[in-house]
Amino acid sequence: LFRFSHGKTVWVIHGITGKTAKLFWKNIVNHEKVTVTFDRKQTGIAVLDPSYHKSNYFI
């Protein structure tokens, strides 16, 4: 995904509750290019805008 993304990319990923999906989502949250994430139980939203400070929210 990162290869096809730029500084204004927003990802919406549905289905982040399974074992493999949780690991995938955790890797996204911890990635240096991802600045803001929103965890909505089954859906994750990731923002790759470098002008934002690193923040993670659980909604």
Write the layout of secondary structure elements.
Layout: E1 10-14, H1 19-30, E2 36-40, E3 43-47, E4 55-58
Characterization of this structure:
This protein is an alpha+beta fold and 59 residues long. The protein has one domain (2-58). Helices cover 20% and strands 32% of the residues. The chain has one helix and four strands, in the order βαβββ. It has one helix spanning 19-30; strands at residues 10-14, 36-40, 43-47, 55-58. The longest helix is centred in the middle third of the chain and has 12 residues, at 19-30. The chain is globular and about 30 Å long. The N and C termini lie far apart (24 Å).
Offer a few descriptive terms:
alpha+beta, about 20% helix, about 60 residues, globular, 4-stranded mixed beta sheet, 4 strands
Give a brief rundown of this model.
The chain has one helix at residues 19-30, and strands at residues 10-14, 36-40, 43-47, 55-58. With 59 residues, the protein is of the alpha+beta class.
As a percent range, the share of helical residues equals: 10-25%
Mean pLDDT: 96
Which class of secondary structure composition applies to the elements? alpha+beta
Uncertain runs with pLDDT below 50, 5 residues or more? none
User: How much β-strand is present in the residues?
Assistant: 25-35%
DSSP summary, beta strand count: 4
Q: Helices and strands, in N-to-C order? A: EHEEE
Shape, per Cα inertia axes: globular
N- and C-termini, Cα separation? 24 Å
